[in-house]
Amino acid sequence: PALSNGELRRVLIAEALLQKPRLIILDDPFAGLDTDARIRLSALLEELIERGIVLVVVVRRPEEIPTSTTHLLLVENGHVALQGP
Fold first, then answer.
1. Burial class (CB in 10 A: 0-12, 13-18, 19+), 16
2. What letter would DSSP give residue 3?
3. Whether 41 contacts 55, CB under 8 Å
4. Which of 10, 27, 28, 72 is the most buried (most CB within 10 A)?
5. Could you give the CA distance from residue 2 to residue 64 in angstroms, rounded to a whole number?
6. Other CB atoms within 10 A of residue 83 CB
7. Strand partners, 26
8. CB-based burial of residue 37 (10 Å sphere; 0-12 exposed, 13-18 middle, 19+ buried)?
9. 72-76 and 23-27 as β-strands: parallel, antiparallel, unpaired?
10. Alpha helices, DSSP H only, in 25-80?
């Protein structure tokens, strides 16, 4: 059976974690996920941050920003609109 969008994302993140990275870049990780999968992914991202892994998370909607985020970069029309803690 094929993996769902959420399952595939979890597998890809798990594969990346096996490499013991210090930095993970995720581009729109919540795209196509249902509510339950979004909640689980959000919890996983928070856990990774707590473990000291630096995350660069590109999101389209402000509600998808992990609560443990320390810095933001807002890009509008290809230009930096805001940045900072």
1. middle
2. P
3. no
4. 10
5. 26
6. 10
7. 57
8. middle
9. unpaired
10. 35-50
The string of pLDDT tens digits covering residues 25-66 is 999 888 888 888 888 888 988 888 888 899 999 998 888 888
Question: What number of CA atoms fall less than 13 Å from residue 74's CA on the CB side?
Answer: 8
pLDDT at residue number 29 = 87
- Non-local CB neighbours of 65 within 8 Å, separated by 6+ positions: 57, 59, 72
State percent of the chain over pLDDT 90: 28
Neighbour count for residue 26 (Cβ, 10 Å)? 19
Return d(Cα 46, Cα 42) in angstroms, integer: 6
Provide the residue count of the chain: 85
Contact present, 30 and 66 (Cβ < 8 Å): no
Q: Which tokens in the block code for residue 3? A: 């993996």
